[in-house]
Amino acid sequence: MAEQQPFHYQTVVHQEWVDYNGHMNDAAYAKVFSLAVDAFMANIGLDEASRNYFSYTIFTLETHLCYLQEAHQNEQLNVTIQLLDVDPKRLHVIFTMKNEMNEAIATSEQMLMGINTDQERPAPFPAPVANSIEVMWNKDKQLKAPKQVGRTIGIKRKS
Q1: Pfam families under this entry (predicted)?
Q2: Which of 5, 47, 72, 108 could form a cystine bridge with 42, CB 3.0-4.6 A?
Q3: Residue 79: what are its φ and ψ, rounded to 5°?
Q4: Looking at residue 116, what is its pLDDT?
Q5: What is the tens place of the pLDDT at every residue in 5-18?
């Protein structure tokens, strides 16, 4: 069995993603992270053929985006993933988007759920996918979580 390659998704800021402020629109960040989820699924063995074969997919249950820097038209974007926690049918992950200088410009913390598409219900990952996840998890569980993990939204008040 070939060794699994580390996940990496790459794109550029398209003209239609740039808003009236002259940088990438907030919705475009979400689009890039959504495309990264699709690429991640293929990376762990859930490309289109496998989704059809296993009658299985992954849904995003929750997401929390942090915008750290602006991105501009034609700027290269690189997205990586870190598994924060796993169980037989869920993944708690954080995607980090970086610019060409390898600076973090956004993060997307997500809860992903495996779904049996025939039953339209949550279900454990198919064995080959679970094996890919286990390989990643054995590496990632030793990493420190980025500071954006677990953040809440609220107005801080002085006591």
Answers
A1: 4HBT_2
A2: 47
A3: -120, 130
A4: 97
A5: 679 999 999 999 99
